[in-house]
UniProtKB/TrEMBL annotation:
This is uracil phosphoribosyltransferase. It comes from Coniophora puteana (strain RWD-64-598). GO terms for molecular function: GTP binding; uracil phosphoribosyltransferase activity. Residues 8-210 form the Phosphoribosyltransferase domain. Pfam families: UPRTase. Keywords: Allosteric enzyme, Glycosyltransferase, GTP-binding, Nucleotide-binding, Transferase. SUPFAM superfamilies: PRTase-like.
Amino acid sequence: MVKQINILSHPVVNTQLAQLRQSTTNPKDFREGIHNISLILGIEATRDLEQETFQGQTPIGPFTGSVIKPRVGLAPILRAGIGMTDAFLTLFPSAPVYHLGLYREKVSLQPVEYYSKLPSEPPIDTCFLLDPLVATGGTARAALAMITDWGIPVSKIKLLVVLASEEGLRQVQANYPDLEIWVAAVDPHLTEKGLISPGLGDTGDRLYNTVTK
């Protein structure tokens, strides 16, 4: 992988991910696992955010503090991206959340847009695109097109992913070579239906207990 793709290598993440993979993991534990991995992703992906200083006063004396300078916005892809949102709101409590509605058509596997909460003009400087699974990469690319068309340059977007396929990452990077991607883990294979193998299953269904047999 090239330097723009950052794959976490952390014992806590690996343990959480192994629990998520288990088909016996219940929805509550699945939601908590997605949240925990997302929080670690968020911390790692924000190390280089620009800061600015200010002068403050403690009960003892003056100090020089810092705050994050860019205005951060969150863009979760519905519906699974919602599972990552609370973790990022823990880090950025005042960040606006712009929900993007995209689904993958079952036959063509192409993304279909059905909802966008993007305002007419972007009031943010940096956007975190939240997508738990990148399988074929089609949905992520469609969301990136929506955000760049909105007016946010690729250099100011970070794609945060819990699990991706190698093929999906290649497809995303082929269209957006300058995009910074943070992913907890990468699986090597896609099934004929475009599912990550061994994967996690359908993240949205497992988050919200709508799995059908």
